Amino acid sequence: MRLVFLGKPGSGKGTQSKFIVNEYKIPAISTGDLIRAAIKEGTELGKEFKSYTSAGKLVPDALVVAMVAERLQKADCDSGFLLDGFPRTVGQAESLEAWLGERGVPLDVVLNLSVPDPLLAERAEGRRFCGSCGSSFHVKFAPPKAENTCDHCGHLGLNQRDDDKAEVVQLRIAEYNEKTSPLIGFFKERNLLKEVDGVGELADVERRLRDALGSVS
Length: 217
Prior knowledge:
By secondary structure, this protein is α/β, with parallel strands linked by helices. The protein is built from nine helices and eight strands. Strands 2-3-1-4-8 form a five-stranded parallel beta sheet, sandwiched between helices. A hairpin with a 5-residue loop joins β5 and β6 (136-138). α2 crosses α3 (44-53), α4 (61-72) packs parallel to α5 and α6 packs across α7 (166-180). It is globular and about 50 Å long. The relative contact order is 0.19.
């Protein structure tokens, strides 16, 4: 299964991609994770990425395409992959289409997880993570058992990512609407797009995604 998972910041792609990865035995490739790793390592590329992400802006196409192409050439992608956060522009989608076409491994499906903008902001701004083990929480929807303490490793002090702060979230949503929404039409023209309602209980959203994928496989 080779698929692209679309959805605005806070739509729940990261959470829902886990069952897809387990079901189809494919790696989830998150450009956000790849970029954050580069930033954490303090590489020159990471510093360049940070200048964009901390301002809520999209990283330039050329940098992201090169990073994703390198990742897709690793052995664990031979049987498929789930792309989360890529492509984000029509230009990136065209580059991905060409790259996969040259290798004779086209996409199977593109899922779009739809959530209204006001709910997206609430979801994103409430996210927290453990700086020690990386576990994720949400102050409203999935709070830790003990306030500000990781359930998994006991680390005291949960952090908020810079790109989850209110002012940056609003910028990210606005930029997504401007630059990424055109992908809906791009993939619809290629008969790859499947719209999935992302509002509701996690189990309900997962069921809708299973139904969408079931019609492909």
